[in-house]
Amino acid sequence: MSKCSFCGRSKKETNILIAGLEGHICDHCIEQAHGIMTDELGTKASTRFDTINLLKPPEIKKFLDQYVIGQEMAKKIISVAVYNHYKRLTQKTDDDDVEIEKSNIILVGETGTGKTLLAKTIAKMLHVPFAIVDATVLTEAGYVGEDIESLLTRLLQNADYDVKAAEKGIIFIDEIDKIARKEGDNPSITRDVSGEGVQQGLLKLLEGSVVNVPPQGGRKHPEQKMIPVDTKNILFICGGAFVGIEKKIAARLNTQIVGFGASKVRSKVDLDNLLKYLAPQDLRAFGLIPEIIGRLPVITHLNPLDRKALKAILTEPKNAIVKQYIKLFKMDDIELSFADDALDFIVDKAVEFKLGARGLRSICETIMIDAMYEMPSLGRDDLLITVDYAAHRLSKIDMKVLRVS
User: Fold this and answer.
1) Residues 314, 258 within the same domain
2) How many structural domains is the chain composed of?
3) Residue 6 lies in a domain
4) Terminal Cα-to-Cα distance of the chain (whole angstroms)
5) Which domain holds residue 336?
């Protein structure tokens, strides 16, 4: 009769009896062994995020260069902000009553210019927990939607519920422009629960305070056990397209440039990229409240991507889209290559439909789907993507479905 080699229980006395090379083990012993491992290795497991890999600003930018094409000024500003933020945590300073405040960051740029990628790459370099939250789903407590604390719930989950690690992590709040104060609303009769109300709720998180977080998310209730999380050292990076903010910038520049020589100064203004003149007052005019702007001291913009940058994104970064497809086909022993004019065609379509870098993947996926479906079973060992092949595949679908809103 089969029995457990560890405890001696017979098969009838167990729920599961797993056979090995020279014996068996029952579910009771497996559970007991798992408990022992958790106790013995629990401290080791919690050290996964203990060591922050902090580099000097030029080294941080060099790391970003491997994954993010262009955006030189944004990468430089972010490198300095991240270095200063984590330097506070990793280096002991003299007790001279000078407290260095957080360097939370706000990124302004069109869809597909690399805001999310920058934040992800920074977290990857530092080796800290990272969470992305869409601001559009957040509402004030008590209303349909997610509570502000859900930001911290996701960070906790990604940190394997290691609170100390989470308290050194990074939270990327996307679509921050969607919670701008609604223009024309009368505060006496309209409650802006998903706009200004959310901004007010974010203040204590951005500044730094101890927040009771529901570990599984959802709404708070009395029976739920809360986890206290100190946000003092969590780096918040906010990103948004801020569609229409160029009008605010243009209006400000126009009112400031007056008097003799004004026309000469205006001629030097880059009208094709007004975001480079972005200032805190423009964010306030757009609808962010002054208190939240004050808690996002590092403001930078991302330039629109031109054809040269888009083509470089296709081929140059470590995780370039073309490199990913080549690797996928190589797993099936197929040598994939792209003609240069095919890459130009993909870029042209991304520019034509204003899809940005994010749209490059959608276009490539549409072009490659038939090949990825058929090639593994055809027995061929090579495939060249030509401009005719790419154009034929794209002609089968309505490009409007790829448009990024």
Assistant:
1) no
2) 3
3) no
4) 66
5) 309-402
- Contact yes or no for 147/124 (Cβ under 8 A): no
Q: Any idea which residue has 């920058």 for tokens?
A: 118
Residues 162 and 256 in one domain: yes
Rounded CA separation 117/160 (Å): 22
Q: 227: part of which helix (H) or strand (E)?
A: strand 227-230
Determine, yes or no, domain membership for 5. no
Quote the CA–CA distance of 14 and 9 in Å, as a whole number.
7
Of 169, 85, 81, 73, the C-alpha closest to 113 is: 73
Query: Average pLDDT for residues 134-156, to the nearest whole number?
Result: 80
User: ∠ at Cα 390 (387, 395), nearest 5°?
Assistant: 120
Tell me the C-alpha distance between 404 and 356, whole Å.
8
Contacts of 75 (CB under 8 A, 6+ apart): 61, 64, 65, 68, 118
Indicate the pLDDT class of residue 194, thresholds 50, 70 and 90.
low
Are residues 269 and 138 part of one domain?
Answer: yes
The two beta strands, 170-174 and 382-385, are unpaired
CATH of the domain at 352: 1.10.8.60
Phi-psi region of 23 (alpha: psi -120 to 50; beta: other; left: phi over 0): left
CB 289 within 8 A of CB 61: no
Partners of 19 in beta bridges: 24
pLDDT digits (tens, 9 = 90+) for 61-80: 999 999 999 899 999 999 99
What whole-number distance in Å separates Cα of residue 131 and Cα of residue 152? 8
